[in-house]
Design brief:
It contains 12 helices and 16 strands. By secondary structure, it is α/β, with parallel strands linked by helices.
Length: about 450
Amino acid sequence: MNRRTVLRGMLATGAAVTLPLPLLEIMLNQSGTALAQSNTPVSPLYVTWFFGNGTLPGRWKPARTGSGSAWELSPQLQPLAEHKSHLTVISGLENKLVVSGSEHPTGSAGATTGAPLSGNAVRAPSIDQVVANLISEGAPYRSLEVGLTPATPGGAPDSLHTVSHKGPNSRNNPEFDPRAVFNRLFMGGTPVPNDEEADQATKLANVRKSVLDSILQDGASLQQRLGAADRQRVEQHLESIRAIERRLETTTTPGGGSPPACSSPTAPTAGKDSQSEAPPQVNTAMVELSALALACERTRVLSFMFSLPAAHVYYRHLAQDMNDDFHDTICHGDAGDQSSQPRVDKGVIYTMRCLNELLTKLKSTPHGSSNLLDNTLVYVTSDTAWGKVHTKAEWPVLLAGKAGGRLRGDEHHNFPGDNLSKALLTIAQVMGSTATEIGLDAGRVTSPLAGIQV
């Protein structure tokens, strides 16, 4: 079976539906390492997972280096404990491109492009787009950019508003509305209605058939061609999409009250974060959509913006004492050092819990002969090291997943004072690049980090 096989249907309103399938055994060769029809090796997948405002380096960096039992997770990485075997922690790196007075935008640009800013624009493509050049040919979407909270950073530079850049003045902005992401992935990209269309959309919703209902006939035909394992995988895939539909249709809207009907047959109802809170229910929706996008190879490259650089986010749902601007009041205003800002610690740990949800979903999603986490490289980083005074040493860098066996996992490597851009070159080479340099000016490097790639 061709990897691009989809199920097709038609909604009651006349809108066409195409439903992509996960990577099934019938699509692979006997060893499960390449596509059966073309003998093309199964490509690893890539995710940039970015969070704003940094960490507490004294609670982020593990105490010991090594592999397996030789090292332990730090307090701020403890939420990822169930995935320790899939983690490669890289400490000691320094972002050489941080500019005093512009720490967050230059820090974000350095961590994702390895190049300085030119005015408000980046000067080089971001690492996700470098990887997209390597692995995205044939995928419906060259890359996909999603976000959890649009809490504003309050600045003009492009590197404050996204971590995905095709190049100078060509940024890929994240989509923060789960409805719009669902629509793009499964409804052929039909635009979400604007406010003036809301009444008509509500009427259309009354005669709406769900995405799955519309493709049942095509699905029944497909099932006759599959073996038992593939039939079970397709059933699980369809049920996961059904669960997302239900959640999107019943998500409580800001301000309380009953959720509105779907705004149209092509745009399930789920409001994006409008309170700058990074709420867990929106994270869950985006995690599930992200995993489906990768599993179906609607894209092989994804950016997940947990929060923007310097985001004025409020984690008020965590505790009564967290109802303050995390950037201005908590990170910059709270007393303490790199190991002892309790409210900063609480925010970072929540951030890692949300990352853990993505890693858990990737690990539980079959892909080829294993699962998505085995076949994905997730690059986790931020726009600063210690947010209180914008340090540039001990920059947070974590690689999650095994990139199809190209990373070992369960390791902590320390590179004191080394250039952060070496992590970007390492990622590019892990994902198949033959490049021997990356970055510009102080961010230019000509060698990767030693001992990371298998």
